[in-house]
Design brief:
Number of helices: 15
Structural class: alpha/beta
Order of helices and strands: HHEHHEHEHEHEHEHEHEHHHEHEEEH
Helix content: 40-55%
Radius of gyration: 21 Å
Distance between the termini: 52 Å
Strand content: 5-15%
Shape: globular
Largest sheet: 7 strands, mixed
Strand order of the largest sheet: 2-8-7-6-5-3-4
């Protein structure tokens, strides 16, 4: 028996390879500072855990959830968007509850595209976007994210041929891996681009809570007409340190939401109700825990910048997310530099080429260890005399 053609054409799992390399080094007894991961290092806030504990005791949560989730959770999502972004969401028709937003990223091409159709992906971008391409048996073109454009796509460079064949486009701000952010004017431009060329938009808002220097990240749905063309995916993983809970949602265009819900009707019976109850607590309770979390990431970002400046590593501080996008020294590829750091400094980073062709020349560093470990990592790198 062989794997299906669909499985055989899946991309190699980039992060699995990285985890294996780090695991081998740790098994050898080495003190590896892992800056390559994207797994939040802080615990879920106590009030969310308490809500989950109380919900688990209730026998009602031991039954199947409604196929499309608890109405109360969808109402909480609508309330969250109205409060945080001034965006009105119809809880009945404009919300799809997801087992983490990675599910939505992979499902959307399956839901609205046919084999052989084409989509637009950012380069560099989150590697699992390619998984959705492979599973839906569709094709893709890329839009480069370049430093000179603040890592925003330049729609004027997209050829007429590419625009004509694209049916779906993915965006992600604050951005993984570059740490770049988008403003409302860019999203206004995106809506017009999508309408002009009949392209649906998926905005991956995974790091929507994490903006620095007093700037709150902008939701795509704040742009006029955004719900006419697209959806936004939001995860509780980063905002509330709930990565292992696997809970997120899509909001926006009712037809796209219905497509996602229809796919999920045939795959799942929605999330464990107790997890949804915890999600309600996260979205509707005090957001002080989020404020504190963002302040911690900003402090870590500043510590990293100071340490890099100290050794002569010219880096640009990220404006959002919990990642920094750092240039590799002259004479190295991204992968060679990442391997060198792991082998000779016991510092793990993610090679930029794993995020696409235009990721070459960079490594991604996560702000997911404390400031002392960040300083120690840069001190170890300084001993290699590369800068």
């Amino acid at each position: 028996m062989e794997f299906s053609t669909r499985l055989q054409q899946l991309p190699k799992q980039f992060f699995a390879t990285l985890v294996q390399k780090v695991g081998t080094a740790v098994a050898e007894g080495r003190d590896v500072i892992n800056l390559g991961q994207g797994n939040p290092d802080q615990p879920t806030p106590p009030h969310i855990i308490k809500a989950m504990q109380e919900a688990v005791i209730n026998p009602q949560t031991h039954k199947y959830s409604p196929f499309r989730g608890l109405p109360e959770f969808k109402e909480a999502i609508a309330e969250f968007y109205a409060r945080e972004y001034g965006v009105e969401i119809d809880a009945n028709t404009e919300v799809a509850i997801l087992f983490g937003t990675k599910i939505g990223v992979v499902e959307l091409p399956l839901a609205i595209m046919n084999p052989g159709d084409s989509m637009l992906l950012p380069d560099p971008g989150y590697p699992d976007y390619w998984s959705g391409v492979a599973l839906a048996d569709v094709k893709f073109d890329t839009i480069p994210l370049l430093a000179e454009n603040d890592f925003l796509p330049d729609y004027t460079t997209v050829s007429d041929e590419v625009k004509a064949r694209a049916k779906l486009m993915y965006l992600n701000y604050p951005n993984n891996p570059t740490g770049a952010v988008a403003n409302l004017s860019f999203f206004d431009e995106t809506v017009q681009f999508a309408k002009d060329h009949d392209i649906a938009v998926m905005h991956d808002f995974a790091y929507g809570a994490i903006g620095f220097d007093g700037e709150k990240p902008v939701s795509f749905l704040q742009a006029a007409g955004a719900k006419d063309v697209g959806v936004e995916l939001y995860t509780l993983s980063k905002t509330y340190n709930m990565a292992g809970w696997r809970v997120g949602f899509a909001v926006g265009n009712a037809k796209l939401i219905e497509a996602l819900n229809l796919v999920q009707d045939h795959l799942f019976v929605s999330l464990f109700p107790a997890v949804q109850e915890a999600g309600i607590a996260a979205l509707t309770s005090s957001q002080e825990c989020v404020t504190e979390l963002v302040a911690m990431y900003e402090s870590r970002r500043n510590a990293l910048k100071v340490a890099c400046d100290r050794i002569g590593w010219a880096v640009t501080a990220p404006k959002g997310s919990f990642f920094a996008w750092l240039p590799v020294p002259e004479g190295y590829t991204s992968e060679a530099f990442a391997d060198l750091l792991l082998e000779q400094a016991d510092v793990a980073v993610a090679a930029g080429n794993g995020f696409g062709e235009y990721g070459e020349g960079y490594v991604r560093v996560g702000l997911l260890v404390d400031e002392e470990r960040l300083h120690e990592a840069i001190t170890r790198i300084s001993k290699l005399n590369l800068f």
